Each structure stands twice: as C-alpha cells, then as structure tokens.
Amino acid sequence: MKVQIVLFDGFDELDAIAPFEVLKTAAEVGADVRVELVTLDVASEVVAAHGLRVRPEGRLDYDDRPDVLVVPGGGWNSRASKGTWGEAERGELPEAIARLHKSGTTVATVCTGGMLAQAAGLTTGRPATTHHGAVEELRASGTEVVDARVVDDGDLITAGGVTAGLDLALWLVERHFGVDVTLSVQRHMEYERRGTVAGAEGRSFGVS
How far is residue 37's CA from residue 19's CA, in Å, rounded to a whole number? Predict the structure, then answer.
C-alpha cells in the first residue's frame, strides 16, 4: 500500500508526523506499506505551524497515485494565511485532492484537513468529522457531521483534532493489514486507541 502525506506551510506537526510514525512502524512489523511526506509543488523545506522544518521526499504523484492520501490540518480556526484556510482560499490543493480521489485514491484527513476535503467537494452529503472548532462550518457545508474520533466512509476517512491522527492511522493499519499488526504497532508505540470509529460497526476503543 502506497501512502502519501501531503505537507504545506502551516500544517499542524502532529497531524502529519503521528500518522507517518504509525505507518512507518507498521512497515517495520511486517505490513506492506510505503509512506512518503510530499508537497503539491517542488519544495526543499516546509515550515509547520509551530516552526518545525521538514524536508519533503517528493511531490504528489498523479502517474503512480497513492492508495491513500493523508491530509493534515492546521491554521483553519485562526484563518491563517499559511495552513488549511490559506490552502482552501488558494484552491490548488483542494483541486489536487479531488483529482486524486476521482482517480481512486482514498482520502484520509486529520483535524481541519477535513475542511480541505470539504473544499475539494468530497464531504457534501457524506458522514465526516473534523476539529471541534470547525464542526459547525463543516455541517453548514452540507456534510453529515458524526460525533466520532474517526469516521470511515469507504474512500473518505476523517478524524477529529490533532491526536486523532494516531487513531486514524491505526485504523488504516487495521483496515488493510488486520488486528494483529495493529496491536503490534500499538505495543511498539505504547499507545492505546481511544474513541469510536464510526462506519466500522461502531468500533470503540478506550475512552471516548
């Protein structure tokens, strides 16, 4: 499974790095998964919301598209020019997300990355979630907002704020590679999942 995590200036660090580490750990324990940090355009460095500087590994791949595209959040609730709000206003990243989704890529969002999926036209009339600070905007767009840690609607998977990226990535591991691999990742990272995965028979983990 090929996963690309798309970075942009102002992305929230944990939204991207948590899924990256979960998926890298899954590969280390035997899952057939490749994960890359990429950007829309060529960039030698991306500066995240709290100042972390990241060197991406490449660009979004349309020719050899990813099976899963992970979209982090950051900057929406503050209306920051760098972050999801700025990316939605510019429009190029939502267009890229829509293009990949149309070609068969599953889009998985963390936090207000869900608002970029909304800007891409993916959430209207569908169940989804996002950071609590943007929930009402998501609802107003015609999305069926679900109160869950992770919402799995097949080719669109959304998660709540920041740390929910851990749970989204672990759900991706379970969905594609099974419970045993997922438990191995959890033990390695010393993390226990929490909340509910809606759309997956109401799976609940730990404290909601």
Answer: 11
Residue 127 pairs with which residues in a beta bridge?
Answer: 144
User: Which alpha helices (H) appear in the chain, and where do they start and end?
Assistant: 13-28, 84-90, 92-102, 113-119, 135-140, 164-177, 179-189
Per-residue model confidence as pLDDT tens digits over 1-49: 999 999 999 999 999 999 999 999 999 999 999 999 999 999 999 999 9
Q: Which domains does the chain have, with CATH numbers?
A: 2-205 (3.40.50.880)
8/13 Cα distance (integer angstroms): 11
Q: Virtual CA dihedral for 170, 171, 175, 177, nearest 10 degrees?
A: 10
111 is catalytic: yes
pLDDT digits (tens, 9 = 90+) for 73-132: 999 999 999 999 999 999 999 999 999 999 999 999 999 999 999 999 999 999 999 999
- CA angle 127-38-7, nearest 5°? 60
- The H or E element containing residue 39 is strand 34-39
pTM of the model: 0.96
For residues 59 and 39, the answer to whether their CB atoms sit within 8 Å is yes
**Active-site residue, from 3, 33, 108, 111:** 111
Q: CA dihedral defined by 43, 44, 47, 52, rounded to 10 degrees?
A: 150
